[in-house]
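Most newcomers find our protein records easier to grasp once they have seen one. To make this concrete, we reproduce a full record directly below:

…
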Amino acid sequence: MNVMVFGKLIGGVLGWSSAGLPGLVIGVVIGHAFDRGLARAMQFGSPEGIEQVKKSFFETTFLLLGYLAKADGRVSRSEIDHTEQIFVQMRLGPEQRERAIKLFQQGAGADFELQQAIDVFVATCGPQKQLQQTLLLFLISLANADEVMDPSEHAALVSIAGKMGFSATHLEQLLRMARAQEQFDQQGAASAASSLQDAYAAIGVDSSVSDKELKREYRRRMSENHPDKLIAKGVPEDMIKLATTRSQEIQAAYETIKKSRR
């Protein structure tokens, strides 16, 4: 049955049976809203929809990487090196690399329209907030590349997150988690106490959390970065390596906590 009439049909029948003609009208209106939502969800889940999301995710990532890198007035050497590292991890071919560089430069340009770029991305991704958060985490990784986040970079992240519909509180939680994960990755140079503290922060929990809640949050973080799930949502396969690295850091943090609790 055509998805664009299913909701109206069911809503109309239920409305008519419960309240006659007025119920029929109300049921059809509610059913129409349901049909639109269902059709939109099916569109994003179709092969064509996923391909559109992948293209938009790639383009928006490098546009916003350029915008963020230029937020403090100049693109630093460490930010360029980090972007180059992303190229390597993604194993971009010559054409993809050239496209990514042009997008980066466009985002760093004085005439770049941030709101327009995000509006296009959000419209393409639809209600997939997890996909938007994944992109935000990529941007946070670049902002932390030189180990010192400039106030203008932080302000740029707040602006980007806000335009995606994320609160400043949520962004700060992501920033704390990302910093802890990166520190945990370098745990060989940290003290044991510092490493354990970073491990809790990397999963996004307090040290007083119960074992049950710890496991639940750990599984949630791993699910958020699961390669198959991200690919299904529209993250380009070339960018999955970045999420895989984050999953390894989260898993290592969880193992450290478990050992400390024994």
Observations:
- The two ends are 56 Å apart (CA to CA).
- The mean pLDDT is 75.
